[in-house]
Specification:
Blueprint lengths: L4 H22 L20 E4 L16 H5 L3 E4 L5 E3 L9 H5 L6 H4 L1
Parallel strand pairs: 1-2
Antiparallel strand pairs: 2-3
């Protein structure tokens, strides 16, 4: 008895899915909880953009560095919890430090 090609294909796909599930069951991905600490990097450059929310180690809305697009002055975001992240160098206006989890030392802390 010969099975049609579409049935063989379906059996192969199911076998692959079962193999993946079995692999994940026997070798689960190990998650290491990283403790988030402020790793102070280089001094922040430019003018601060004070915001009324804390840095949460990831991208946050709104896009604070966008003011650089209009005036071309270098800035950094100064969060309510004392941390700071650098904006990209002008003419770019991306929230570089925020997007890449890189902090900088605000002017008030470096003096």
């Amino acid at each position: 008895m010969s099975f049609p090609l579409h049935q063989k294909f379906a059996v192969a796909v199911i076998a692959i899915i079962l193999a993946i599930v079995a692999w994940q069951a026997f070798f689960p991905k190990k998650y290491v909880s990283e403790e988030r600490q402020a790793v102070e990097g280089e001094p922040c450059k430019g003018q601060p953009i004070p915001v009324d929310y804390a840095y949460n180690w990831g991208p946050v809305e709104p896009h604070e560095c966008k003011v650089q697009c209009s005036d071309g002055k270098e800035r950094y975001i100064l969060y309510s919890n004392g941390l700071a992240t650098q904006c990209s160098k002008p003419p770019s206006c991306l929230d570089y430090g925020e997007d890449n989890r890189v902090t900088c030392v605000p002017e008030s802390k470096s003096q």
